[in-house]
Design goal:
Layout lengths: L1 H40 L4 H11 L2 H12 L4 H11 L2 H8 L9 H9 L3 H13 L4 H28 L4 H17 L5 H19 L6 H29 L1
Helix pairs in contact: 1-3, 1-8, 1-9, 2-8, 3-4, 6-8, 10-11
Length: 242
């Protein structure tokens, strides 16, 4: 009876995780195929893209690699840019530390290693609702990763079979940033970050730093927004004291 109950619980967990992951999986099909096409444009084959998606698993990073390569960016710049962009995932993993108390280290490790922007949002909401667990969250990550990997491989095969203009595929990266932008709450700090990031990217391109322009612009936007928010907080605290 105990084994049957455990099996039923596990099946329930898989079903719940799959239902939570479906929107992410569908979204990854839409952006994974263009990513695979871009990877094909720099000479990566299906096996290489499969390994990259399965082991590296970074949507923004995998888009940056072919885009920066096609822009003739030096290897060191590509590695540094992709590494810095992916540091956010360490923060995602760290934020789930309270939920990982009491679970095995192996389970916690694989969960933390497979968190992405989208699965982070889903798991954060599910943990806040309650009745959610690390094993369910891990399965959300793995379902999402499977969709991303398969979509990238399909993109490579499509790219090698059909000539698709790179500008069309490359626009997917811009589309991702637009989607992330319009879903943000338009606070004053966020507006400052957006404007400064845009100016930073434009300034980099003016002086010929096309490769790391997005990275530098994003870092500049975040830094200025943090300073702006700190000044706002100090101003409010001073007003309350007076």
């Amino acid at each position: 009876m105990a084994i049957m109950a455990f099996t039923m619980i596990e099946k329930t967990h898989v079903k719940e995780a799959f239902q939570a992951a479906v929107p992410i999986m569908l979204g990854y099909v839409a952006i994974g195929i263009p990513c695979g096409i871009l990877c094909d444009s720099i000479g990566l084959n299906a096996l290489q893209v499969f390994l990259l998606s399965a082991l590296f698993y970074s949507g923004a990073g995998q888009f940056m690699i072919p885009n920066m390569y096609l822009a003739a960016s030096p290897l060191a710049s590509i590695i540094a840019s992709v590494s810095l962009v992916n540091t956010r995932q360490m923060l995602y993993a760290a934020s789930f530390a309270p939920e990982c108390k009491g679970v095995s280290k192996r389970l916690a490790f694989f969960f933390a290693a497979t968190v992405t922007d989208e699965s982070y949002g889903v798991s954060t909401a599910k943990f806040a609702e309650g009745h959610w667990s690390v094993d369910r969250a891990l399965m959300v990550n793995l379902f999402s990763q499977s969709s991303w990997t398969v979509s990238n491989v399909v993109g490579v095969l499509v790219g090698s079979a059909i000539g698709i203009p790179l500008n069309i595929a490359a626009f997917a990266m811009t589309a991702i940033f637009i989607c992330l932008l319009v879903t943000q709450k338009m606070t004053s700090a966020n507006i400052v970050a957006i404007v400064c990031a845009m100016l930073g990217v434009y300034g980099c391109k003016l002086i010929g730093l096309g490769g790391p322009a997005i990275l530098i612009g994003a870092l500049a936007g975040v830094a200025v927004a943090m300073v702006f928010e700190r000044l706002q907080r100090n101003s409010r605290e001073a007003g309350e004291r007076s």
